[in-house]
Amino acid sequence: MDSPEIKDNIKEKKKKSFIAKLAKVLAWIIGSVIFLVILILLLIQVPAVQNYGRKKVVSYLEGKLHTKVEIGKLDIGFPSSIKLQNVFFEDQSKDTLLFGGEIKVSIKMLKLLKNDISIGEIALDNMVVKVKRLPPDSVFNFQFIADAFSSKKKVPASMDTSTLKMDIDRILIKNTRVIYKDLLTGNDMDLAIGNLSTKIDKFDPTHLLFDIPSIKLKGLKGHFYQLKPLEQPVEKTVAEAAAEPDNFLQLLNKEIKLSDINFVFKSEPSHLNTSFVIGDLTLHPKNLDLKNSIVTLKDATLNNSDIVIETASQKANEKPK
Q1: Integer Cα distance of 197 and 213 in angstroms
Q2: What are the start-end ranges of the H helices in 111-202?
Q3: DSSP state, residue 175
Q4: Comparing C-alpha atoms, which of 275, 281, 245, 280 is closest to residue 262?
Q5: Cα-atom radius of gyration of the chain, to the nearest Å?
């Protein structure tokens, strides 16, 4: 018969053996998880895997939006960048919403887990963007995207979107055309942007506050026509704006540099016809009061430019040649 000491030794050995086995199992599980994470990080860098992911993204978006979507190439540089090339998004009227060469976003993906969108840079190259609001619809042609991804469930106050943090450090736009047509407000714009670079210190869309200390634009061609708006929607918009006096855009800026500009602005309601051919223009704003339409400057420098401003009264006073 075994003595109590021998029994205790056997129990102690069994206990140590169990702990050792448990430690090995835990080490195997943790090692496997780490291996899988490393494997996934390596695989998403492989073109074949990214191409498979691209097809899945396109299929998902087409099923969600019920419109045509094309992405020629998806390039994920984990954990900091996403690049889309040869992109096409169609709106519900079968017209182009977004088309072009490349969209690149530098983002800190790990911060998304903390409900924090931190974007280092957004870059658009060789893109065409069309934004429209035409009768009989009263919404923009991109609204269906927001509707498709919005939740129909009522969001609790504790999950208010104001808790979402968003930062954007820089926006770069090259060789991009922007078409904006809103017949409800009477705005018709078609611009070709050569090179636009902005540095952003504060990006707060919740409070409409944007601190953009530096704006550089080289190469801008196009027009902005202000046509006679449709009366009812405009009256409704004005009433809504008056009901929310604090809801206005706040823009802070230290320097604006413009060069190689050829831009036409016409206002049918104001009988105004202007053209701007600008070689070089540097502005240092002192105050940008967009709420009261007041802009004051510290200084301005203008070179190699031709600016024409024509009003209806000037036209009426012109004598026939």
Answers
A1: 11
A2: 143-149
A3: E
A4: 275
A5: 29
Calculated CA dihedral for residues 48, 120, 285, 267, nearest 10 degrees: 30
Tell me what the mean pLDDT of segment 272-297 comes to: 90
Euclidean distance between CA atoms 28 and 33, whole angstroms: 9
Q: Rounded to whole angstroms, how far apart are CA atoms 134 and 183?
A: 6
Query: Which burial class, exposed, middle or buried, applies to 198 when counting CB atoms under 10 A from its CB (0-12, 13-18, 19+)?
Result: buried
Beta strands of 200-248 (E only): which ranges?
Answer: 202-204, 209-211, 214-226
Selection from 215, 288, 213 nearest residue 257 by Cα: 215
Residue whose entry in the numeric block shows the structure tokens 């979402």? 164
Extract the tokens encoding 254: 């230290």
β-pair partners for 29: none
Structure tokens at 42: 């390596």
**Residues 35-44: contacts with CB under 8 Å, at least 24 apart:** 41/78, 44/76, 44/78
Of 131-140, 149-158, 244-253, 283-292, the least confident: 149-158
